[in-house]
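DOMAIN: structural biology
WANTED: fold as tokens
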Amino acid sequence: MHIFAQRNLAAAFLLPILFLLFLLPLNNAHGQEYKVGEDDLLRIKVYDNPDLTTEVRVSGEGKITVPLIGVVAVNRLTATEIGNKLADLFADGYIKNPQVSVFILEYKSKKVTVLGEFTKPGLIEMRGESTLMEVISNAGGITAAAGDTLFIQRKSIKGSTGNKSDVTIPINLTKLLEEGNVSLNIPVQDGDSIYVPKAAFVYVTGEVKNPGAYKITKGLTVLRSITLASGFTQKARKSKTEIIRKSSKGEVTIAAQMDDLVQPDDIIVVPESFF
């Protein structure tokens, strides 16, 4: 199964390198870009006012309680934005020229479900601004039988009604893993379901030079499938090539034309010539 070996080799070489590259922007994400949410734990430091330094957890309503100020809404704000907001509030009759820093001590756990062709499918818990590549890594990578497209199913709030609907986001795995397209390494959200279906293959056997399973691409014909198998042997009886195909009534055998399009799980059989 040549396609399996090639994909495993490429993934083993490229995945660690791409993962490190994809992590570079995340160093910033956990500081300036990460937007605070429910259950995050914050440390608030007010310089020259140690009594006001405190640790607070964001409530389910996205609020924190701060000494002197009281309840403050912080949901979907960055640490820097929260610091600036608190500084303005402290300056309003409490402290002259306050300097406030906010640090995120703990990130809320995100629960993401991975299904299909992952090495370790199941429930994965992530913290902070986690990306798709981190999820793939935590799931042990994808299997050699994986297709070229990953699907993220996500709950999305629709319009002003607040109704939730499912949104499906397709990700091209070839571009993400093999070509290193960073734009596809999107953040995951709590409750995401990530699915990688099995690739569709055609099986070429008989009098070809490299019998095996080959991934079906758009417009793949019988002739192209045989070419992927390195072509006919000298003993091949080309005109008698057959396709064994699954149907609702079981397997059927049909005479193959070289320009026929193949279907998933087709078996192309090239018989031997006895002349």
About this structure: Residues 1-14, 17-32 have pLDDT under 50 and may be disordered. Residues 62 and 205 are 61 Å apart (CA to CA). The chain has five helices and 15 strands. Helices lie at 2-33, 79-91, 132-138, 173-178, 222-228.
